[in-house]
Amino acid sequence: MSRFLCLIMLSFGLIQTAVADDNTDRMSAYLTQKFGLATEKAQKISDAVQSAASKYSLPPALLLAIISIESRFKEKARGANGATGLMQVVPGAHRGLLRNVKDLTEPTTNIEVGSAILYGYMRSANGDMDAALKSYGGSKAYAQKVSLRVQDFAALAPEPGTARRADARAARCDAAPADRCAAPDNWANAFTVPAVDSSGIAGSAKPSTGSSAASN
Questions:
Q1: Which residues, 6 or more positions from 103, have their beta carbon under 8 angstroms from its beta carbon?
Q2: Which domain holds residue 104?
Q3: In the chain, N or C: fewer CB atoms in 10 Å?
Q4: Domain Transglycosylase SLT spans what residues (predicted)?
Q5: Does position 162 have pLDDT exceeding 80, yes or no?
């Protein structure tokens, strides 16, 4: 019986891998066609998005939407407050998180860091993704813009249960001791939530991750 269960689990794992590979191929082809990326670069970004999405229980389409708004997939993009790379990470707001990061413009590193920051904001907001996006970009309008842009990428990597898993995971973490429910590599708490005034704009003392300087 145990051998049969092992075969089932192995088959399930192979199916998941095949689905992920198919999603990555579609994603890469879309980035090449829509944003004019070289095939190798599109593949690298797609792989990084899939990896980070799986690691932090975030929808791949959400990460793609953020990248498209923040940098239009230009890994060397620079914005206000030193915002850097694909997801416009602000080094000054996340020094603890970036201690061992040598090149924030490297796509895989930038997407990993940006995703960890977003996961941290979501955990702080008890699973509320709108609130997390507001913290990430500094305004309610930014959160709404990302939500709309997600629709452009939704068909590339459909994972209907991802958002629910993320909400549940954040809720569990909120109820658990901090040392027992840290994000991978203990990155969940290494972020600074930007102060938001009554107009919905992040205060300059604690700059948000997304700068919008590289946005379209």
A1: 109
A2: 48-186
A3: N
A4: 48-140
A5: no
Is the pLDDT confidence value at 160 over 60? no
pTM confidence score? 0.69
* Location of structure tokens 């939530």: 193
Residue 85 lies in a domain: yes
Q: Provide the terminal-to-terminal Cα distance of the chain, rounded to the nearest Å.
A: 56
The string of DSSP codes covering 116-133 is HHHHHHHHHTTT-HHHHH
Q: What is the DSSP letter of 89?
A: B
Q: What is the CATH number of the domain that holds 87?
A: 1.10.530.10
pLDDT at position 9, please? Answer: 44
Per the structure, the count of domains in the chain is 1
- Six token digits for residue 182: 């840290």
Residue 215's φ and ψ, nearest 5 degrees, are -75, 160
- The answer as to whether 109 is a domain residue is yes
Dist CA 156 CA 149 (whole Å): 13
Task: For residues 27 and 1, give the distance between their C-alpha atoms in angstroms, rounded to a whole number.
Answer: 39
Q: Buried b vs exposed e over 86-107: b needs ≥16 C-beta within 10 Å?
A: bbbbbbebbeebbeeeeebebb
- Is 30 contained in some domain? no
Residues 169 and 57 sit within 8 Å (Cβ to Cβ): yes
DSSP label of 190: -
